[in-house]
Specification:
Layout (H helix, E strand, L loop, with lengths): L37 H10 L2 E7 L3 H9 L10 E2 L10 E5 L7 H10 L5 E5 L1 H5 L21 E3 L6 H16 L3 H4 L30
Parallel strand pairs: 1-2, 1-3, 3-4, 4-5
Helix pairs in contact: 1-5, 2-5
Length: 211
Amino acid sequence: MGVTSRPNPEPPVSLPDPTLLPEPKKLGVLSRLAPEPMKVVLNWGRRYSLWVFNFGLACCAIEFIAASMARHDFIRLGVIPFAPGPRQADLMVVSGTVTDKMAPAVKRLYEQMPEPKYVISFGACSNCGGPYWDSYSVTKGVDQIIPVDVYVPGCPPRPEALLQGILKLQEKIARESLAERYSTQDTARPSTAALRSGLVAAPKAPGEERE
């Protein structure tokens, strides 16, 4: 019998050290539920399911109604008009002149809306007071009492302007991070408590005397 030599064993292949994937970033108030990739899904669902609470105070409210009718039909953009109340709404559209007497009601209804919530200031009167900016009884812009996301200029704006404002808001929601929105940094969205105004006072408790 012939003697055969055994083949030389192949040298062991050195495998690279395993690389650990970075921990996914978290989203603010949803840090225990939603990692960073879910931000796209959450924002997509949020921007196309806006339930609108129209706070109509003057003539601009008529243009809001026109935008919700069949000719313009902003429901096709994922906006549901005429929420039953602020507790069911995602978006408040303030249209018309905000008077000092009405300012506490605007702020109270905004505070009743669940988070996340958005505000569109629709028309010159709600933006800055409009033609009545120098009146003793007019609030010089609704942003003095509540945070505003989108301003729609005009006196009154056309319904197409409101549609453009809604599209701008949806673009903002699409790239929004809840961690940035509700962080404690200076760039965070201001709360209603940070918007101080001598025109808005806390309501009197039952039994307290009014000044």
